[in-house]
Amino acid sequence: MTDERRHAPATARNRDPILAVLREALPGRGLVLEIASGTGEHAVHFARALPDITWQPSDPDADARASIASWREAEGSFNLRAPLELDAAAETWPVERVDAIVCINMIHISPWESTLGLMAGAGRTLPCGAPLILYGPFRREGYPLEPSNAEFDLSLKARDPRWGLRQLEDVSGVARGEGLAFERFVEMPANNLCVIYRRS
């Protein structure tokens, strides 16, 4: 197999803080669907650290899925599945039921339709009480945007005007409409948040 592994420098910095949240928020066992898995580095790390969980990576991009598959081949754990082709914005997903969903750094690097689709898909596939866990930078009412995040937001919009940091309250409103109740957020390094919703 050709080595098509990609590397995202931020992964090494944020994977352990995210893992600490996952240990608290995820069920002790079951099937976790990761949306927009990107390079696959998070998937490998989390699957290895959480051996009682089956980790299902996914991504709409063929090159990303090739990277995930290469990471899985080179370093993957027995509980890491082959990546699925999955577009969060699609009306149907290639899975019917999962025990949790994790989505890292997608909402701000995709059109708003992807967030709408993510919430709708989570509402369809999660059972009552199951978590949807988001990670990334957000805007929040009553809080000025940090200078680094403001600069990041401008750079994202320069790449694609449909991208940019989302208002957490707007995201939570969409989640609520799909039967996902906001539980809490955890402040993370580099002005990011982990946001946890539960299927009600």
Automatic annotation (TrEMBL):
Recorded coiled-coil stretches: none
Membrane-spanning segments: none
A Pfam family the protein falls into: DUF938
Gene3D superfamilies: Vaccinia Virus protein VP39
InterPro entries xref list: DUF938, SAM-dependent_MTases_sf
Stored PANTHER family: UPF0585 PROTEIN CG18661
Protein name: SAM-dependent methyltransferase
Native source species: Novosphingobium pentaromativorans US6-1
